[in-house]
Every structure is written in structure tokens, then in C-alpha cells.
Specification:
This protein has 2 domains: 41 residues, no CATH class; 34 residues. The chain is built from 1 helix and 4 strands. By secondary structure, it is α+β, with helices and mostly antiparallel strands. The structure holds zinc ion. The site of zinc ion (ZN) has 8 residues, from loops.
Length: 75
């Protein structure tokens, strides 16, 4: 019977996990040795939301610039 009570070092983020850990904080699966989505991440929608929000902000700035131009060069 082999002793497996060694800390697991994540091959992806180098985080040292407890021997009983099945998955790293970054989502690395020690059982299947493959990358999984991190279950600690609660912000899976954040990039998309930030992208939409950033797009709206850029759109507002563009509209303001266009309005300023129209006022400057308009009648
Ligand atoms: Zn990791």
C-alpha cells in the first residue's frame, strides 16, 4: 500500500494543495489530470458583462463626441 499523503502541487498554477484535494483553486483536476472550470470562480459572467459595459461606455463617449462635433459644425 503506497502512501499518498503528499501535498499536490498544481501543474498549472503551482499552488500547493492538500493531499486530499481533488481540484485546485484554478480549476485543475488532480483526479483526471485535466483543466476544469474553477469552481471557486463566481465571476464567470464578469468578462462578458465587462465587455458589454465597456462597449456601452465607448458608445456613449462616441455619441458625445458626435454630438459635440454636430454642435461645433452645425448651423
Ligand atoms: Zn492550480
Amino acid at each position: 500500500m503506497r502512501q499518498e499523503a503528499q501535498a499536490k502541487t498544481c501543474p498549472k498554477c503551482r499552488l500547493i494543495n492538500p493531499p486530499e484535494a481533488e481540484r485546485c483553486d484554478c480549476g485543475w483536476d488532480f483526479v483526471e489530470n485535466c483543466q476544469r472550470r474553477s469552481y471557486l470562480s463566481t465571476s464567470t459572467m464578469a468578462p462578458a458583462a465587462a465587455g458589454i459595459g465597456g462597449g456601452i461606455i465607448v458608445l456613449i463617449i462616441l455619441l458625445k463626441v458626435i454630438f459635440a462635433l454636430v454642435r461645433a459644425y452645425g448651423p
